[in-house]
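For anyone still unconvinced, we reproduce a single protein record, the chain in one-letter code, the fold tokenised, and leave readers to judge:
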Amino acid sequence: MTELQFEKVFNKAQDLQVKSLTQKDAEEAEKVLTGFESGLKRVATVTQAAYILNVVCMDMGGNYNPDALGKVKELYLENVTIIGEKQKKKKKKK
């Protein structure tokens, strides 16, 4: 991940504070990013990385812990590759 990509992830994380992911999307984000903190290389979308950033770095009051945010940024830059967002499949009308 690059610094610019991390900025996109952080901005998306702030946007997600007022939105919620579906249970399925949240579980998918957790699945694809499991292990990034242990040095495992992971591939995720901006939304998935933003969701995990909020889960790991945000307290119950909606504030970011600066120490946690700095550590996650460091780990993201080293271990996470950002890919394009997955497109939702549209159901065909009959």
Residues 31 and 48 are 10 Å apart (CA to CA).
